[in-house]
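Re: [help] complex structure
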Amino acid sequence: MKKNKFITICTILVGLQIFSSCEKSFLEVEPKGIFIESNYYQTPEEAFSGLVSAYSQMVNEASGPKLGALNSAADECYTGGGGPTDFESWQVWNTYTLNPAVGPQAGFWNADYAGVYRANLILQKISGGIPGLSDELKIRYIAEAKFLRSYFYFELVRLFNNIPLITLPIETTEIYNITQANPAEVWSQIEKDLTEAIPDLPETVPAEENGRITKGAAIAQLGKVILFQNNENRMAEAAGYFEQVNNSPNYHLMGNYADIFSPDHKFNSEAVLELAHSAAFNADWSSFGLMAGNLLVQMCGPQSYTGPDYWSGGWAFNPIIPEFVASVRNDPRYKYIVANIDSIVNAEPGRSYLPGYMNTGYFMQKWLPLQKYVSQVGTVELNFPHDVIEIRLADTYLMEAEALVRSGTNINKAQSRLDAVRARVGLSSVPATLDNIYEERRLELATEGHRWFDLVRTGRAPLVLAFKGFVANKHEILPIPLNDTRNTKMVQNPGY
Amino acid sequence: MTMIISCILLFCGIWDITAVPSFSPSVENSANFKNSTYENLSEIGSAMEQQKHISGKVTDEKGNPLVGVTVLVKGTTLGVITDASGKYKISNVPQDASLIFSFIGMTTQEIPSGGREMIDIVLKEVAFSLDEVVVIGYGTQKKSVVTGSISSISSKELENLPITRIEQALQGRASGVTVTANSGEPGSASTVSIRGITSINNSDPLFIVDGIYIDNGDINFLNQSDIESIEVLKDASSAAIYGAKAASGVIIVTTKAGKKGDLQINYNFYYGTQAPAKKLHLLDATEYATLRNESSLAAGLELPFPNPSSYGKGTDWQSTIFNDDARLQNHEMSISGGNDKSVYYTSFGYLNQDGIVSTSISNYKRYNFRLNTTHQVKKWLNFGNTISYTHTKRAAGFDPNTEFGGPLSSAVNQDPITPVIVTDPNVLNSNPYNNHPGAIITDDNGNPYGISLIVGQDMTNPLAFAKTQLGNYFWGDNIVGNVFMEIEPLPNLKIKSSLGGIYTMSGNESFTPLYYLSTSQSNLENTQNSREFSKTLTWNWSNIITYSRKINQHNFSGLIGTEAFESSGSGIEGTYIGLPVFNYQYSSMNFSIPPTNRIALGQESQPYSRVSYFGRLTYDYGGKYMVTGIVRIDGSSHFGSNNRFGTFPSASFGWVPSREKFWPENNIVNLLKLRAAYGVNGNDNLPPFRYSSTLANNGNYPFNENNIVIGYSPGAPSNPDLKWEQTVETDFGLDMTLFKDFNLTVDLYNKKTTGMLLAINLPGYVGASDSPYGNIADMKNSGIDFDLGYNKSIGAVNLNLIAITSYNKNVVTGIGVNDYLWGGGFQASAYEIARSEVGQSINSFYGFKSTGIFQTQDEVNSYVNSSGELLLPNASPGDFRWVDLNKDGLIDEADRTFLGKPVPSWTFGFNGTMTWKNFDFSFFAQGVSGNKIFQGLRRLDIITANYQTNALTRWTEPGSSNSYPRIVDGDPNSNFSNPSSFYLEDGAYLRLKNLQLGYSLPDALIKKMRIQKLRFYLTSNNLVTFTKYTGYDPEIGGGSYSIDRGIYPQARSFIFGVNLAF
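Output below.
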């Protein structure tokens, strides 16, 4: 009997022993549905997904669409929305009461630096070697990543001026030792990346790759980067880049101005750099931040609209300022810029909408949520398919004209570019003076996110935006986000 | 009852012990220790005359012999102690001497010998005896020799409490334990913390039910009547046996086992009605319009309501959501019994509780079933199991503490001008009522519910809102159980293997009808039906060997064990968009929907496993000196291979000076026990795989519209050196019996948590989309816990009073490179309203300071900095005079400071029971003090939101107010949008939690009815609350750190109940 008990004990002890020898594998669990960085970037597909994560930051709308914020800051629109603190980060840019804590800066900064990080990382991974990645793809991915990095730095430097320049993923130990770079260094890094990317980018892409970066996009961007540095000695250089694009057989001005912005004419002949959006992701609120739809379209629709044509659930952002409306009323592009919802509603009984905050009755025609683009699957609000054409041919025409005039080189060429843009909408020629070119930009590119940058880079902002509270030598750039001045070596921008 | 399960367990020891003759207590043994240890007590009075011998036996009330009882001849030092069979023999006793029998945990008795030579005596237990057995983790121990700090609650204390969740039983009953209801919503859990906030990232104690880890802390599957005892292991030395998971303390719940004997049936029932205890005072329509006019006018805008008095009283939105008669009922029935071989306990319970806010969408139902059995298969083999099944169903109407819409928040913020229902044809023919066909929610008579065009945003008509939520509920099926086998191959050597686990299936059903509640709250296109289903399985398998041995006065017991734990889970959710029906009652997934409108999501939880080795050694010498040592080694899959294991040791000591011979017999301190303990515990609470860098899908890009490519990039930088966070605690305690009737326990503790696992807030320029984790922060908790009990029978009245109180001080002592940690935002405010900073209590309120209100423009103009510039250029009379705290001549975010702490310093509870004949009466009150509450019921970002009536005392003209600023649209001086002490209120309260009067039918009567017990009672919960707090309820749990965003208040209830046993 006693012996049996000992056998029992021994069995259990042996059992415990076996159990403990299993312990190592028992604790080494494999993640489910998560890739570990050390095992990733092992195939061309994984490299591409890394590149795509950088691409996605060009359209990251988790903090709101950049375009709407820029419209709010310019003399085109008010912020509007549901109330004075609805989208406060835009409201305070509209009223120029932004401070390091409140404003659009954190959204821009974080999204752009995330893009920088992802571009840096994929460059590092590709240079480290990715099994199976052909040289051809490798060269193209590197060029795209460099374009993307330069794109994000261009956004950062023109919005913040004083920014850290990071070209490799930051070592954990270095995180809090980063300092802001001299802006000149940033500009030259941007130009370097673009210059290196241009030869390796494709002239055109097949339809299924629409949205991938092309040579034309990079060249136009490089011209724009030089133009934005306001160095009169380099204007001829900038004009040269714009000319390459403007003379390219790949691009033509669209015959019909309205078609440029229609989701039915995506990647049209006027699009040089187009930021893609899509309804096909069928996003719902749980995938907010990963959505592919254009949130601006949702935000800028009239509230509780009743009647044909428009989606009924808009949020009333970016009502157009009446003075701006008056100033474009006689332009042939007026009806493609301004939707006078008040007059539409008043014209027929049974139509109505609820005015939002600072409603003017004028809405942005280019971004209106037309009923026919209301998504049938997924959350309507998150699935408007409208693309944003960041650089379009009319823009590069006008930028070339501006650069030529500012360099004083080929005024005739400048005149012909300006004329071409005007002729498209049936306007006659006006002299290619800087004022006329700027005025043309204001009309041609209205509510497309260029106005604020144009006013700032040409020094007209303090005057034109005084009515909103713009303070010279302060509001040309945004404050460094509060979070990034905590525990770091960041120095706040002057005036904030 | 007095047995100890414990032992020594050294493998070599097993062989040694077998060589010793089998141990059996004998008179010989006791004679030995008498001679060796107690000889000094005897023979001193031997010179006295007329001496004789007295012998006898001392037993307890159940007839069990009491070993070690001191028998003393009164007035002398002559004495002996009883042997292993409870017998004593004392020589040379004076003829008419009295004998004093004393024993720890027993009432001391004095018996005149009266010439007798044979005196047998029965000692009675002292109520709240230290001789109770307490559960200490993987075993039990006599309370008298416990060296750690453990609070214990028995089934007796739970019996008559009409509570719906077990955590509530701990509130105010165990010192050092803070229990705060997350909300008053039926089915809502409570937040439990033991001795303060132990860790920034998770301070929930570990729940162990019948040896099973309840890893998610949700113990809603438990039925109150099934509980045998709840033990709270408060200090690190007690909790060390659970090492890695025990930093925030351990709560051990033991369910009832059957008892030998006749089949016994218990039935408990109660039924009651609940009502809100308090309504806020809000502005009526006229007052509202007046204030809105004033606010607009002050901003230079047009008057929105030219004729305020035309609106009359308007709508009282609170009355639309509150229910003054929400019903509550509970049934619990158990059957238990057994014989020498097998015992069983089985029970069934049913709870149905309606909520007091928006009753149609706040109901909770629970069904429980339990079967516990134990079988004595062989003399040396036990086998048993516990198993319970619980089904819960909870209406998923709204978040119980949110400022973003929902019935409560809407009722507070919605304007009183909008009517509840709209009948005016002119209004009905206008936007939005005439639009959105099929989406305007109507009452049962078809009248559209009023839609506010004044307030809007996420505030909605609460009645309309409730109608849109009717098809939504959560459900859960929990199976919790274990099987165990215990063998005793040698006397006192026990080997036990126990496998337990929880299998939870849970999910929710939801139907989204078409609705239009406000401009921003609408669903106009498609109805939607979603079903979510998930299951989790956690199991733990423990193997323990215990050995106990008693040699003379030396009691040893030892334990070693191993344990493994694993959890896994998965879930799936499906949504049908565009159902052909518009009402939840007809919603079904049987409808045919095009495949593009059927959406599925799924997920798996990340694997998590732990492996543990542990040992415990306890020793005591005659119940006088005691020591316990514990070591536990835990490994967790949450850490990389370099830091996978952590070691958690502890040691504790006890001494009972009152059992020393030098302790004078006195009537003041009858018993004194001193304890000292030191221990280390851990916490592995962090998301999985944080030691490596994982890829996240954090951005996609649609090439050519339809070619959406999923993008991956690392979410957060890795931290391969992550390790356990560690809590080291020292505890000094004393247990006393004073004046025979008072029991006092005092514990002083100091607890340091280091290397707290925390997400690191990275600067944005790093470009990470997610935060990495690090062992960053340190914190200290120190405090003192008092338990005072009083137990007395005065004539036919039995009185039992318990008072507990605890003081806790929490200080953050380190937060790494951070200046502070974000402690919570509020509404749309850019500023955090609380932060954790070194030297401050966790999540202390943080904001601007004002020195009152500017009364005149002169005061504004003279508020300047050293260079003569206005400090507050946007200010006007009636605005707060914000203080330039850092004196830099500028008022900005750097001028904020700490304004108070959300965690109470003091928690207290008073519990009294009185019985007289067949009546019983009890009360229980509980409270806290020393904390502040952020009263955030009004939405600041909605300027048109309604006000509480204190807004009527706002500043209007010089001298009108120095505490409530003027109201003005746009709030240029940020009077309201700056977080400041304007929103902070004293959070102290004392609440009469329960008041009860019961009557039990007399024995004589019920014997005839063949029943054992029949008791009726009337009780009230939350009858009175004393507080200065102006919100609904000062009890705000759920990890919100006293930020009231519109908490669902606790109900005041009146309940009738029956206890029946036969």
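Residues 1-208+459-496 of chain A form a domain with the Serine Threonine Protein Phosphatase 5, Tetratricopeptide repeat fold (CATH 1.25.40.890).
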